[in-house]
Specification:
The complex is a heterotrimer of chains A (260), B (403) and C (285). By secondary structure, chain A is an all-alpha fold. Chain A has helices spanning 7-30, 46-53, 55-87, 94-102, 109-122, 129-153, 157-165, 170-199, 202-207, 215-225, 230-259. Chain A has a domain at 54-234: MetI-like fold, CATH 1.10.3720. Chain A contains eleven helices and no strands. The model of chain A has no long low-confidence stretch (mean pLDDT 87). In chain B, 26% of the residues lie in helices and 33% in strands. Chain B contains nine helices and 20 strands. Chain C has helices at residues 10-34, 52-57, 60-92, 96-110, 114-125, 130-137, 151-176, 179-187, 192-219, 223-230, 237-246, 251-276, and strands spanning 38-39, 45-46. Chain C has a two-stranded antiparallel ribbon with strand order 1-2. Chain C is globular. Chain C starts with 9 loop residues before the first helix and ends in a 9-residue tail after the last helix. The model of chain C is unreliable at 1-5 (pLDDT under 50). Classes of the chains: A mainly alpha (260), B alpha+beta (403), C mainly alpha (285). At the A-C interface, helix 1, helix 3, helix 4, helix 5 and helix 6 of A face helix 1, helix 3, helix 4, helix 5 and helix 6 of C.
Chain lengths: 260, 403, 285
């Protein structure tokens, strides 16, 4: 009845180009033969070779994986249990408790960084792995907490009651009924937390010590102080992993749906 | 033969300062089918949840088979619940759902399998073991929920409006099946509903709940024919409740002055009534009889004069089978309540006529499948067979008669 | 009083309580306390009450820095809204399969390092970079660009980093909207533009506002974007705090700066709650 305008799709495409342009550039120049990132003088895999010999970069990658892994695991436990507990309680000031819990992702990261740095030094905590994990856990909890909370809000309370009625204790009912049903929210919250932790620069810079460097900090210093094309190669590989994982999850989801 | 299986003693419960149960006492016999009947918010679900252990009373005690279980958590009680929305675990198959209670009781695998199969057989769902709740229809979910509770051989089965979400036809069918199942297994059922017809059809006893207390506890016949309070009369029999003052008692007929008219109620021979005493009468809408009034609303003075003669005449009048006749009956001419017809409507094969008394009270009359002789605006006299009316008490709950 | 037996479900929330009190509330309170303390002559803090830290913020240098930060934050937010709102709106009108694809495409960059994506912009914007070469390729003779390490570069970087949040926030609220309402408005005689303004825009305002918060708040503190794309020319509050913490070693002053920044953020959140009538930010979950 109405002529379909081409403007929306054109607009969407242009914005997507804007989003992907820098990423494409990084990928393209990871195969550049020269270390300069302009012009094109030939194809080469030398940056990938150098990347695999870059012990420093790999060490920081390991650190980042460790910090992100540990903080996302503890955030998953604390956040899930917390959201569960709070959703089953009624008391004055519950809103305030939830507000403070989600504060770490509501305020600028720089403030968290400053706050943690001063507080950890007040507590005399040695800066390094421990402080990194605590700080990352703090800003990871809100992601898990909010997702699980939303999921619990949509879940019938009577399911848990039915389990209790059939003879399950409170703990058993949680593990048999509630946890399997909120598992998708726990998973997506933790994944998001992992991604945020893995990519965090601002807070990590403040709370880490001289001995432990995470990948983003390493990249930051390299970008600031010199041209390092193997970082392009690293980014390309990370992208490859991401796309593979996403495609796999979509595929698995499809197969799962077909089964039903 | 029948022994008490469950006793509620003086149960009180308030949520956030609003009291929901105001001292409930109930004693239930083994093997009984008892229904808690009431409109939403009357406290019936809270009562059920207290029996199940999902809620704890502020005061009072729950005694199951002679043991005080008031503070015990639901997993420590030998009662099971069929939840209003079924509460089937969506991540488990039908068989896993039904087996869940047995698994928790550490029943051996082989026996679990056998009992699950039996339970599903019982609710006619054999062959559905592998399905997920999402793949079942409403009626099938209902059956799984019942099987899941019954498989544990509970002493008492609690059913919270189990048929509320089903369509009318399915509901009728399930009512019959549930009743049959209960008779066969001999398990005590505590059943919750807001549907009086369902309650009257299925129960051995009905407890009508209102405002956190029981208005009346009795057999369906008692509840239907001899409502104790005006609320029960209105809720169960959708009766008209009319207030009046006693004129005199002749034999077992009580003459009552009400709404600018005189009406009659049959009472017990021994019962004593004083002239001037206030009474409430309940008359079901299908028992109201109507006839054309002389012309204009009758003047009060004239009515007063003729009352004496009319009273005597009225008592001798035959009582025909009114259910098939029209509204028009032998007209008492001078007694009866003068009304104006306000509205005439048909619903479900029923003719419904709303009338207003001279003081503004509404009376409803209804008949099956006949045409009205009256039209809106007509002046009529409303009367009834003395046997059709019952005296009721005023409900102790405030605002009881407001909708 | 409520019942004899209370469930012990609060135990589940205990770890969250402890963690939040110890590592969120505690540090934030300490920040406020710290902001009233004095810097000792050498390295460190003295527990002497002072208002000096707050007075210093009024000094022209620092005031200028706040003004510049706010200006950048406003510019960034305005531009992300300008691009993000139509994007979210159009996206919500796509077919479900296209929606899913687009969501996936928006999520992928989240999983690559944000620093490397900024580095991609360096490649594009540098003097003889991709942009320069493209313009040359199109036949224009120009001098090497002076875009990198400038204010526009920082704006591009900020918009780029924060745009996905705006897009998702708007998308989720448009997607939830009942299109029948728009049809009803049209049916009642509203023009397409009028229907959009009086119905669609009003109903998706919470999403837009949530996007505004999600871009405005972080843009005040993302010092590393200004650092990488702006060189040392643009000093934001974030950079200032970082500077005071590391080189300046004036923690109380850094704390005072943070308190002011935090106050601005909190006021914005309260404003959002008032207007949107909810505490939840759309598009996060």
């Amino acid at each position: 009845m109405k002529r379909k305008s081409v403007f929306p799709s054109l607009f969407l495409t242009l914005v997507m180009i804007f989003l992907y342009l820098p990423i494409v550039m990084v990928v393209v120049y990871s195969f550049h033969e020269s270390k300069y990132t302009y012009g094109w003088s030939g194809f080469s895999l030398q940056w990938y070779q150098e990347l695999f010999q870059d012990e420093e970069l790999f060490e920081s990658l390991r650190n980042s994986l460790a910090v992100a892994g540990m903080s996302c695991l503890s955030a998953a436990v604390i956040g899930t249990l917390g959201a569960f507990g709070l959703s089953r309680m009624k008391f004055r000031g519950k809103g305030a408790v939830e507000y403070v819990t989600t504060l770490p992702i509501m305020i600028p990261e720089i403030i968290l960084g400053m706050v943690f740095l001063s507080f950890f030094s007040l507590l005399n905590l040695p800066q390094g792995m421990v402080t990194l994990v605590i700080a990352h856990t703090a800003f990871s909890i809100p992601y898990v907490f909010m997702m699980v909370k939303a999921r619990l809000a949509g879940m019938e309370l009577s399911l848990e009651e039915a389990a209790r009625d059939l003879g399950a204790g409170p703990v058993r009912a949680f593990f048999d009924i509630t946890l399997p049903l909120i598992a998708p929210a726990v998973a997506s919250g933790s994944l998001l937390a992992f991604a945020m932790s893995f990519d965090d620069v601002v807070i990590s810079i403040f709370v880490t010590g001289p001995k432990v460097t995470t990948l983003p900090i390493r990249i930051y210093t390299r970008i600031k102080f010199g041209v390092t094309p193997e970082i392009n190669a690293l980014c390309t590989l990370m992208l490859l992993v991401t796309v593979t994982v996403l495609l796999l999850s979509v595929l698995i989801g499809r197969i799962g749906n077909r089964k039903k | 033969m029948s022994e008490t299986i469950l006793e509620l003693k003086g149960i009180r419960k308030a949520f956030d300062g609003v009291s929901v149960l105001n001292g409930i006492d109930l004693s239930i016999d083994s093997g009984e089918f008892i229904t808690l009947l009431g409109s939403s918010g009357c406290g019936k679900t809270t009562t059920l949840r207290i029996v199940a252990g999902l809620e704890f009373p502020d005061e009072g005690s729950v005694i199951l088979e002679g043991q005080d279980v008031t503070g015990k958590s639901p997993d420590k009680r030998d009662v099971n619940t069929v939840f209003q929305n079924y509460a089937l675990f969506p991540h488990m198959t039908v068989a896993e759902n039904v087996a869940y209670g047995l698994k928790l009781r550490k029943v051996p695998k082989a026996e679990q399998k056998k009992r699950v199969a039996e339970a599903l057989e019982l609710v006619q769902l054999a062959g559905y073991e592998k399905r997920r709740p999402a793949q079942l229809s409403g009626g099938q979910k209902q059956r799984v929920a019942i099987a899941r509770a019954l498989v544990n051989n509970p002493r008492v089965l609690l059913l919270d409006e189990p048929l509320g979400a089903l369509d009318l036809q399915l509901r009728r069918q399930m009512q019959i099946e549930l009743k049959r199942l209960q008779k066969r297994l001999g398990i005590t059922f505590i059943y919750i509903t807001h549907d009086q017809e369902e309650a009257l059809n299925m129960s051995d006893r009905i407890a009508v709940m209102h405002g956190g207390v029981f208005e009346q506890i009795g057999t369906p016949d008692q509840i239907y024919d001899k409502p104790r309070t005006d609320y029960v009369a209105k809720f169960v029999g959708s009766a008209n409740v009319i207030c009046g003052t006693v004129l005199r008692k002749t034999g077992n007929s009580l003459a009552v002055a009400a709404e600018n008219g005189t009406v009659f109620v049959k009472v017990g021979n021994e019962a004593e009534y004083l002239a001037g005493q206030e009474v409430r009468m309940a008359v079901r809408s299908e028992k109201l009889q109507i006839c054309e009034a002389d012309s204009e609303p009758t003047s009060k003075s004239r009515r007063q004069e003729s009352r004496e003669q009319e009273a005597a005449k009225q008592e001798n009048e035959g009582r025909g089978d009114d259910s098939l006749k029209g509204f028009e009956q032998q007209c008492p001419k001078t007694t009866g309540i003068p009304c104006t017809v306000k509205e005439i409507s048909f619903a479900g094969g029923m003719l419904r006529m709303a009338m207003e008394t001279e003081s503004g009270e509404e009376l409803i009359a209804s008949r099956h499948g006949i045409r009205p002789d009256q039209k809106v605006g007509d002046h009529v006299l409303v009367f009834w067979d003395p046997e059709a009316a019952v005296l009721v008490e005023k409900s102790s709950v405030e605002g009881a008669n407001e909708k | 009083m409520r019942s004899k037996k209370r469930s012990r479900v609060w135990l589940a929330a205990l770890p969250l309580y402890l963690f939040t009190i110890l590592f969120v509330a505690g540090p934030l309170i300490y920040m406020v306390v710290l902001s009233f303390m004095s810097k000792s002559d050498s390295w460190g803090i003295e527990a002497v009450f002072t208002l000096r830290n707050y007075e210093r913020i009024g000094e022209p240098v620092y005031r200028e820095c706040f003004v510049q930060s706010l200006k950048l934050a406003f510019t960034t937010t305005f531009l992300t809204g300008l691009i993000g709102y139509p994007f979210g709106y159009f996206m919500a009108k796509l077919s479900p399969s296209k929606k899913r694809l687009l969501l996936l495409l928006i999520m992928i960059p989240f999983w690559t390092s944000s620093l490397i994506r900024l580095y991609g912009w360096m490649i594009i914007l540098q003097a003889k970079g991709v942009l320069y070469q493209t313009i040359r390729f199109l036949g224009f003779e120009i001098k090497p660009l002076k875009l990198l390490y400038s204010y526009p570069a920082v704006v591009v970087g900020m918009v780029y980093a924060l745009l996905p949040f705006m897009m998702l926030a708007v998308y989720s609220s448009v997607d939830k909207m009942d299109w029948n309402l728009v049809e009803a408005a049209r049916d009642l005689g509203a023009s397409a533009a009028k229907a959009f303004w009086t119905v669609t825009f009003r109903l998706t305002l919470p999403g837009l506002l949530s996007g505004v918060i999600l871009t405005f708040v972080p843009s005040m503190g993302l010092f590393f974007i200004a650092d990488i794309l702006g060189g040392n020319k643009i000093v934001l509050v974030g950079s200032l705090i970082q500077d005071q913490l590391t080189r300046g070693a004036d923690w109380p002053f850094a704390a005072a700066l943070s308190v002011v920044l935090m106050t601005i953020t909190t006021l914005l959140l309260i404003l959002y709650r008032r207007i949107a009538n909810t505490g939840e930010l759309e598009g996060i979950v």
